C-alpha cells in the first residue's frame, strides 16, 4: 500500500465497500437454485458413531443371509472369506477379544490377514458403508431393513450376535459394546494432530490397555520435502494406458459404476490419432487389431437380426441378472471378474443339453472352469435359471 498516494486510499476503500455490499445484496442471482428438501434428504444419509442419523428399521440374521447370498457373496464369499480381489470380512477375532474390546491378532505380524471385523471399532461405520456403497454394481439399492439384516449376518459370522438375532435401531448401541475391537481406535496418537480420548471413552477403556499419553504434534516434521517445490501450474496429474494394452481387459467404460467421477475410458474406441500406432504395436505383439469401422461392420454381420420379441426377452433376462447380482462379475461381451456371457455362449453352445447344464451350473455355482475365482450358488427359482441359460446358449444377445 505504500506505493499508493495517501489521497487515493479513502476513495479506494469506498469503492471496495460498495462492491462488497453489492455482492452481498445479489449473490449469484442468475446461477442455480436452492436445493429441495428431498434433494437434501437424499444426500443426508450419514450415520455417526453415536448413531445419530440412523434410520428406524430392523433385520434378522436369516434375512441378511438371503440378501448376502444374492447380492454380496459373489465378491465377498458366502461366509465373508472373500477371494483374491477383496479383503476378508470375517475372521481373526476371538471370544476373548469380544470381552476385552481389543483384537490381539492386530499385534501379531505372523497372522496373515486383517479382516474387517478385526479392525472395526464403530458399528456405525459398517452400517453406513453398506447403506451408501453396496452392492458394488448398484450402490444405495438396499432397503434400510436389508442393511440391518446384512449387518446382523456379518456380526453373526463373527460370533458377535446369535443366529436368531434381530438388529434394529433400538438395540444397535448395545451391540456396539460387543465389537471385538471397540477400543481399538484412539485419537491419542500424535498424528494430525491427535487429541486425548474423551473422559467417558477413557473411563470405559481397560486401564491395562490404555495407550500411553503423548503430546500431540504434527505428523510431518521433515524439511527436505518442503524445499524446491515445483510450481503448481507446472504439475499435470493424469493417467494413461499403453496403446498396445488399451483393450487388454475389455471396455473400461462398461466396468465402472454409473455414479462418481471415474466413469472409465471407452477402450473399444481408441483415439483416432493413436489408432495407427496401436495397430502397429499390437501387430508386433501378434495381436490382430480392427479399426472401429471394421469392428462395427464385423459385429453387425455376426449378429442375427433381432425382432421386438427377442429384444423383450433379452431385457427380461438382463433384469434377472441385475436382480441376482450377476452383473457384478459378468458383462455381455467383455470380461469383468468372471467371463463374459458371450464367451460362455461360445464355450457351451455346441454342447448337448447346454441349456440344462448351464441352468444347473447357475444354481449350484462352482470354481475352476474359468479360473480360481468362485461363483457362489444362486437361490433363484429354476425357471429363472433356465431363462438365463436359454438366453446364454444362442449368443447372449444385447437388449
Name some characteristics of this structure:
399 residues, 2 strands
Describe this structure in words.
This protein is an all-alpha fold and about 400 residues long. About 40% of the residues lie in helices and about 0% in strands. The chain has helices at about 10-25, 35-45, 60-70, 75, 95-100, 115-120, 125-135, 145-155, 170-175, 200-205, 275-285, 290-300, 310-325, 340-350, 355-365, 380-390; strands spanning about 60, 165-170. The radius of gyration is 28 Å and the shape is globular.
Per DSSP E runs of 2 or more residues, the count of β-strands stands at: 2
Question: Roughly what percent helix?
Answer: 25-40%
What is the C-alpha radius of gyration, as a whole number of Å?
A: 28 Å
Overall shape:
globular
Structural class: mainly alpha
In the predicted model, the low-confidence regions spanning at least 5 consecutive residues are 1-23, 287-309
Q: What's the overall average pLDDT, rounded?
A: 75
Task: Give the number of helices.
Answer: 16
Strand order of the largest sheet: 1-2
Strand content: under 5%
Main sheet characteristics: 2 strands, antiparallel
Distance between the termini: 69 Å
From N to C, what is the helix and strand string?
HHEHHHHHHEHHHHHHHH
Amino acid at each position: 500500500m505504500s506505493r499508493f498516494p495517501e489521497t487515493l486510499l479513502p476513495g479506494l476503500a469506498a469503492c471496495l465497500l460498495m462492491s462488497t455490499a453489492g455482492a452481498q445484496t445479489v449473490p449469484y442471482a442468475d446461477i442455480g437454485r436452492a436445493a429441495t428438501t428431498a434433494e437434501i434428504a437424499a444426500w443426508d444419509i450419514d450415520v455417526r458413531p453415536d448413531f445419530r442419523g440412523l434410520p428406524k428399521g430392523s433385520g434378522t440374521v436369516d434375512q441378511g443371509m438371503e440378501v448376502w447370498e444374492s447380492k454380496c457373496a459373489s465378491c465377498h464369499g458366502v461366509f465373508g472369506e472373500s477371494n483374491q480381489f477383496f479383503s476378508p470380512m470375517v475372521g481373526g477375532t476371538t471370544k476373548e477379544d469380544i470381552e476385552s474390546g481389543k483384537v490381539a491378532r492386530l499385534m501379531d505380524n505372523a497372522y496373515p490377514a486383517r479382516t474387517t471385523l478385526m479392525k472395526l471399532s464403530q458399528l456405525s461405520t459398517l452400517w453406513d458403508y453398506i447403506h451408501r456403497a453396496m452392492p458394488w454394481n448398484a450402490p444405495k439399492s438396499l432397503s434400510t431393513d436389508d442393511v440391518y439384516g446384512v449387518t446382523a449376518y456379518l456380526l453373526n459370522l463373527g460370533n458377535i450376535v446369535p443366529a436368531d438375532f434381530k438388529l434394529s435401531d433400538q438395540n444397535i448401541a448395545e451391540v456396539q459394546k460387543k465389537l471385538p475391537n471397540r477400543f481399538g481406535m484412539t485419537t491419542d496418537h500424535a498424528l494430525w494432530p491427535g487429541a486425548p480420548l474423551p473422559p467417558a471413552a477413557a473411563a470405559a477403556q481397560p486401564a491395562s490397555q490404555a495407550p500411553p499419553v503423548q503430546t500431540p504434534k504434527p505428523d510431518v516434521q521433515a524439511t527436505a520435502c518442503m524445499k524446491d517445490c515445483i510450481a503448481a501450474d507446472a504439475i499435470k496429474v493424469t493417467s494413461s494406458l499403453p496403446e498396445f494394452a488399451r483393450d487388454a481387459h475389455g471396455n473400461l467404460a462398461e466396468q465402472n459404476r454409473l455414479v462418481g467421477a471415474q466413469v472409465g475410458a471407452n477402450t473399444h474406441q481408441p483415439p483416432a490419432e493413436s489408432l495407427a500406432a496401436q495397430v502397429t504395436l499390437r501387430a508386433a505383439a501378434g495381436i490382430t487389431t480392427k479399426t472401429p469401422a471394421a469392428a462395427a461392420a464385423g459385429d453387425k454381420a455376426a449378429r442375427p437380426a433381432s425382432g421386438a420379441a427377442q429384444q423383450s426377452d433379452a431385457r427380461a433376462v438382463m433384469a434377472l441378472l441385475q436382480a441376482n447380482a450377476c452383473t457384478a462379475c459378468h458383462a455381455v461381451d467383455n470380461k469383468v471378474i468372471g467371463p463374459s456371457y458371450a464367451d460362455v455362449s461360445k464355450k457351451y453352445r455346441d454342447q448337448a443339453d447346454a441349456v440344462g447344464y448351464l441352468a444347473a451350473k447357475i444354481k449350484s455355482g462352482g470354481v475352476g472352469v474359468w479360473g480360481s475365482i468362485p461363483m457362489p450358488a444362486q437361490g433363484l427359482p429354476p425357471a429363472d435359471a433356465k431363462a438365463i441359460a436359454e438366453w446364454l446358449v444362442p449368443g447372449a444377445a444385447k437388449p
